[in-house]
Amino acid sequence: MQKAQISTEFIIIASAALVVFLIILSIAGKRNDELYSARTTLYARQEADKLASSINTILLAGDGTQKTVSLPETLRDDEGYTINIYPSSRLVEITWNYSGKNRQYKAPLITADITGDMSPLSGTTFTISNIDGGIVVG
Q1: Of 12, 43, 46, 88, which has the maximum CB count within 10 A?
Q2: Residue pLDDT, tens place only, 57-69
Q3: For residue 108, which of 92, 88, 95, 122 has the smallest C-alpha distance?
Q4: Contact (CB, 8 A) for 81 and 124
């Protein structure tokens, strides 16, 4: 074999290996982004479910029961979020932004008899009380 032929074959093989490597790297990057998105969704669901569970527990515990709830400034992966209570819909809704898309999750409540401060609650500490069978947030 001639040296020029060996060099040409090596360049072709190296180019093919580089293309395969770039394809694998691209697929791995996409999967990694999906993993982070799923992780953020789980963190958001956890916060909404925790708040809804606290409200439902206070309701079921009866008159005079209260609990202090603290919500973090951000989700565990530093994503900002907003959490709201919608008594008429019997929902706790959390919204967050991931990769330029607004995402949301809704956790159910067992009562619509909720009063108090319903402004967005992320990053705050507040008390949930059962007063005469109704829930007071504030």
Answers
A1: 43
A2: 999 999 999 999 9
A3: 92
A4: no
